[in-house]
C-alpha cells in the first residue's frame, strides 16, 4: 500500500538542548566543527522547517576570510558572514530549510572558517572561536502519512527510537482497571519508555474514550463493542491494530485477553519481543518463564560482572589524530553508571587506558586529557623520543631491513595508564545543582583530547610541518571496571531516583517494587504511575515485567517490597496522616542524628514550614512497614498536578535531590535533604571507616562531652576521698 500524505499539519519547536547539546556548541580553530542529530518519524514527512540560531563570535575574526557555515546532511544551508564591530555580541539568524533535504535520520553540521591574520597565524589560537547557543531552535512542520493497519511495523507508529520528540501516547481502559490490568499497562509503559529517544514519556489515561486525534493503546480484557470498530473475537493474549475512527491518520493498538491475566501475558509478550507480528491482528505466545534479573544488571548500565572494553560501549575509540586546522579532536565512550556505587579504596572507578601515538622527535608538549562529564580527571603527558634517540632507532631499523630481519617500521609509541574517576564526579553532591539532574547526569563520557602543543610555545610560521599534530589512537581493549566496587548509598536520595530509578531499578524487572495507588484512583493517579514506569524503563532499558500494583487498603501485603506510592486529593490524607512522622519534613519534632555539628540546630529548630496536605511533592524515606525497604511518595492535593510532578522527574523543572522536593508553580524546590539511613552493605572495616567519616565532628563533640563528664566525676570522687581522709 502506498502511503498517502495527510493534509493536517503538525508543528514542533525543539531547542538544540533538547536535541542533545547540553551546553553551547563551540566551534574552535581555523576549521572548527560540531554536529547535532535530528530524526523524523518514518510516518511523517517534513513540509516546512526553520532554524533560528543565536550565536556570537570572536572579535578578532577577519570578516573577509571568516564565516560560519551550516549544513544539513552535507548540503549547505547558510554561510553567515562575519561583520567587524559585532564580535562578542549576541546575534541571531533565521535559516529556512528546504524540506526535501530531510530524511529519517539527519545531521546538522556547524562549521567555523576562522582567520585572525592574513599571513601567519596559529590555527589553534584562542582568538579563533564561535559559539552557537543551545537555546537556538528548530521549528519543523510535518505532514503525517497514512500507514496500513499492519502489525509488522510495530512499534511504529506508536513509538520510535528515532523520534526526537517527547513520547505522548494515550492509554485507554474500557472499564475500571484491576490491579492486574494496571500491571499490564505498567509493563507496556515501561517498555515504550525503554525504546523512547527522549528522557520523558507521558501516557495520559482516559476511561473508555478514544482520543479525537492521533494514536492510542487500548486495553480490553473481555469482549466488547466499540462504535466504528470491528474487533476480532478474543481467543487468548493478542493484539489488534486499526485506524482511529475519529482520525483516519491515527492508529489504535488493542491489547486483548479474555481476562486480566491474559491481558498481562499479552503485555509481557509484547515487551519481551520475539513475537511474529503480522497482519491486522496477531495471537501472542505467552512467556512460560520470565528472565531472572540480578541486582544492578540493567541493560543500559555498565556491567558489574567484570572489566568492560570501551569498544563494547555506546561510543567509539577511533583515531585521535588532529583534523586539519582543527583545535582538537576527541573520542568518547558513553555509558550509564549504575547507582549506589561505593569505592572502598577511595580512588573511584578505574579506567585502564591503552593508547598509541606517533613519535615526533623533539616534541614533548603533547598531552592526553581525560575528562568525565566535562570535568578534568587527569592529564597524561605523551613523551617523545629525543632527536638523537630517534635517529639511532631509525638507523637500527634501516640496518635490520637491509639484512632482512623482521622489525616494525612505524614509530608508534604504545602506553598504558590507569585513571581513577573520583566518586565525587560520579555522584555530584546536592549542592552542585547544575549537574545533579541534567539529562546526562549518569552518562559517562570519556573525552580523550587535546593532543596539542603547550600554549606557552610560540607558533613558528617558518615551520611548514604540522606543528603540534600528534596521530593517536585509544585502543579498543581499553577497559573500565566497576566489578570490585561495593553498592552502598545514603538514603533517602531523590537524585538517585530521578537519575537512575533507584531503589526500584536495582532489579530491572521491578520484581521487588510495588506501586501503591489510592483505593479509588483517578485518571491522574494512573497517568502519574505510567509516567514513572516509563521513566524507569528509559533509564534501565528494560520493561518492568514483574511490577506489582496494589491499593492503600492492601498495602500490608507488599511490605517486603520497595514502595512507589502515588496519591492525590482527599484519597491521600489517611495515608499521609498515618505516615506523617516518617516523611522527612524539617518542621517535624523528630529526633534524628545529625551528620555534623552544623546540623545539631535541627534538633531544636526549623527554618521550613511545609504542609503535606496542601502541596504537590516527592518524598523519599525509610519504609514504615519494613526498615530494610524504601518508599518514594508522589503526592498532590490537586490531582491534576500529579501529571506535572511526574513529568518533572527528568529534571526539566529543576534538579531533584535531597529527601523532599515540592512543585512550586512550574519549578522544583528543595524542602528537605535529611538522610537518616542507608541502602546496601560494606565490609565491616569499610563501614566503620564510613561511620567515622560521616559523623566525625559529632563523634569528636560527644568524646569531648564524655571526657568532661568523666573528668567531673573523677574530680568529685577524688574530692570525696580527700574529705574522708581529713575526717579520719
Question: Can you walk through the features of this model?
Answer:
With 728 residues, the protein is α+β, with helices and mostly antiparallel strands. It has 5 domains: 4-145, Sandwich (Jelly Rolls); 147-283, Chitobiase, domain 2 (2-Layer Sandwich), CATH 3.30.379; 308-484, Galactose-binding domain-like (Jelly Rolls); 487-680, no CATH class; 695-727. 19% of the residues lie in helices and 30% in strands. The chain contains 11 helices and 39 strands. Strands 1, 2, 3, 5, 8, 10 and 11 form a 7-stranded antiparallel β-sheet that branches. A 7-stranded mixed β-sheet has the order 33-32-34-36-35-37-38. Helix 1 packs parallel to helix 2 and helix 1 (179-195) packs across helix 7. The relative contact order is 0.10. The model is unreliable at 316-329, 431-456 and 587-607 (pLDDT under 50).
Features:
Chitobiase, domain 2, Jelly Rolls, 5 domains, seven-stranded antiparallel β-sheet, seven-stranded mixed β-sheet, transmembrane helix, Cell_synth_B
- Please mark out the parts with pLDDT under 50 across 5 or more consecutive residues, or reply none: 316-329, 431-456, 587-607
Largest sheet: 7 strands, antiparallel
Radius of gyration: 31 Å
Count the helices. How many? 11
Q: Structural class, from helix and strand content?
A: alpha+beta
- The fraction of residues in strands falls at 25-35%
How many β strands by DSSP? 39
Q: Residue-averaged pLDDT, rounded?
A: 83
Query: How far apart lie the N and C ends?
Result: 117 Å
Helix content: 10-25%
What gross morphology would you assign?
globular
Overall tally of structural domains: 5
Amino acid at each position: 500500500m502506498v502511503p498517502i500524505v495527510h493534509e493536517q499539519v503538525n508543528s514542533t519547536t525543539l531547542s538544540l538542548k533538547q536535541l542533545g547539546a547540553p551546553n553551547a556548541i563551540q566551534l574552535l580553530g581555523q576549521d572548527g566543527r560540531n554536529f547535532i542529530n535530528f530524526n523524523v518519524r518514518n510516518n511523517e514527512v517534513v513540509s516546512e522547517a526553520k532554524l533560528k540560531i543565536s550565536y556570537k563570535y570572536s572579535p578578532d575574526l577577519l570578516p573577509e576570510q571568516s564565516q560560519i557555515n551550516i549544513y544539513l546532511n552535507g548540503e549547505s544551508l547558510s554561510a553567515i558572514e562575519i561583520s567587524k564591530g559585532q564580535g562578542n555580541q549576541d546575534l541571531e539568524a533565521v535559516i529556512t530549510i528546504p524540506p526535501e533535504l530531510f530524511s529519517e535520520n539527519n545531521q546538522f553540521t556547524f562549521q567555523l572558517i576562522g582567520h585572525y591574520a592574513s599571513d601567519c597565524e596559529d590555527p589553534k589560537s584562542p582568538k579563533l572561536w564561535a559559539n552557537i547557543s543551545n537555546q537556538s531552535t528548530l521549528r519543523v512542520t510535518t505532514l503525517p502519512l497514512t500507514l496500513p493497519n499492519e502489525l509488522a511495523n510495530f512499534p511504529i507508529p506508536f513509538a520510535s527510537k528515532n523520534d526526537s520528540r517527547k513520547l505522548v501516547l494515550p492509554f485507554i481502559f474500557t472499564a475500571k482497571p484491576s490491579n492486574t490490568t494496571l500491571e499490564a499497562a505498567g509493563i507496556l509503559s515501561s517498555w515504550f519508555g525503554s525504546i523512547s529517544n527522549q528522557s520523558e514519556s507521558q501516557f495520559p489515561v482516559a476511561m473508555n474514550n478514544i482520543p479525537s486525534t492521533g494514536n492510542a493503546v487500548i486495553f480490553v480484557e473481555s469482549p466488547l463493542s466499540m462504535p466504528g470498530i470491528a474487533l476480532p473475537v478474543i481467543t487468548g493474549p493478542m493484539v489488534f491494530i486499526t485506524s482511529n475512527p475519529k482520525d483516519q491518520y491515527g492508529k489504535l493498538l488493542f491489547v486483548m485477553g479474555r481476562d486480566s491475566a491474559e491481558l498481562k501475558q499479552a503485555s509481557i509478550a509484547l515487551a519481551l519481543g520475539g513475537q511474529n507480528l503480522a497482519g491486522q491482528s496477531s495471537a501472542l505466545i505467552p512467556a512460560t518463564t520470565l528472565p531472572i534479573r540480578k541486582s544492578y544488571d540493567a541493560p543500559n548500565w555498565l556491567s558489574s560482572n567484570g572489566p568492560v572494553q570501551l569498544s563494547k560501549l555506546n561510543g567509539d575509540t577511533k583515531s585521535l589524530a588532529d583534523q586539519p586546522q582543527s583545535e582538537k579532536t576527541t573520542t568518547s565512550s558513553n555509558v550509564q553508571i549504575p547507582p549506589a556505587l561505593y569505592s572502598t579504596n577511595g580512588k573511584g572507578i578505574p579506567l585502564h587506558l591503552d593508547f598509541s601515538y606517533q613519535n615526533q622527535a623533539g616534541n614533548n608538549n603533547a598531552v592526553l586529557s581525560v575528562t568525565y562529564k566535562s570535568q578534568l580527571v587527569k592529564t597524561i603527558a605523551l613523551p617523545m623520543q629525543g632527536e638523537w634517540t630517534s635517529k639511532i632507532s631509525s638507523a637500527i631499523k634501516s640496518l635490520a631491513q637491509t639484512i632482512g630481519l623482521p622489525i616494525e617500521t612505524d614509530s608508534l609509541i604504545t602506553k598504558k595508564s590507569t585513571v581513577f574517576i573520583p566518586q565525587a564526579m560520579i555522584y555530584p553532591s546536592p549542592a552542585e545543582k547544575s549537574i545533579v539532574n541534567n539529562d546526562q547526569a549518569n552518562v559517562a563520557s570519556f573525552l580523550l583530547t587535546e593532543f596539542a602543543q603547550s600554549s606557552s610555545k610560540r607558533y613558528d610560521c617558518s615551520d611548514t610541518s604540522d606543528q603540534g599534530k600528534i596521530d593517536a589512537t585509544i585502543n579498543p581493549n581499553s577497559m573500565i571496571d566497576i566489578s570490585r566496587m561495593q553498592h552502598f548509598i545514603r538514603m533517602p536520595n531523590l537524585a538517585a531516583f530521578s537519575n537512575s530509578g533507584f531503589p526500584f531499578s536495582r532489579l530491572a524487572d521491578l520484581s521487588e517494587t510495588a506501586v501503591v495507588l489510592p483505593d479509588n484512583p483517578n485518571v491522574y493517579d494512573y497517568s502519574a504511575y505510567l509516567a514513572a514506569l516509563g521513566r524507569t524503563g528509559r533509564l534501565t532499558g528494560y520493561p518492568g515485567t514483574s511490577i506489582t500494583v496494589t491499593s492503600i487498603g492492601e498495602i500490608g501485603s507488599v511490605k517486603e517490597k520497595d514502595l512507589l506510592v502515588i496519591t492525590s486529593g482527599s484519597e491521600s490524607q489517611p495515608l499521609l496522616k498515618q505516615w506523617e512522622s516518617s516523611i522527612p519534613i524539617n518542621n517535624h519534632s523528630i529526633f534524628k542524628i545529625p551528620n555534623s555539628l552544623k546540623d545539631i540546630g535541627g534538633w531544636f529548630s526549623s527554618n521550613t514550614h511545609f504542609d503535606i496536605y496542601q502541596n504537590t511533592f516527592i518524598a523519599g524515606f525509610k519504609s514504615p512497614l519494613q526498615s530494610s525497604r524504601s518508599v518514594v511518595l508522589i503526592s498532590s492535593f490537586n490531582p491534576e498536578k500529579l501529571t506535572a510532578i511526574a513529568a518533572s522527574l527528568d529534571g526539566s523543572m529543576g534538579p531533584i535531590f535531597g529527601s523532599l522536593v515540592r512543585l512550586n508553580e512550574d519549578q522544583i524546590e528543595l524542602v528537605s535533604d535529611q538522610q537518616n539511613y542507608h541502602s546496601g552493605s560494606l565490609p565491616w572495616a569499610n563501614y566503620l571507616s564510613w561511620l567515622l567519616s560521616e559523623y566525625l565532628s559529632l563523634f569528636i563533640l560527644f568524646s569531648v562531652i564524655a571526657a568532661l563528664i568523666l573528668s567531673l566525676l573523677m574530680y568529685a570522687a577524688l574530692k570525696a576521698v580527700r574529705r574522708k581522709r581529713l575526717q579520719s
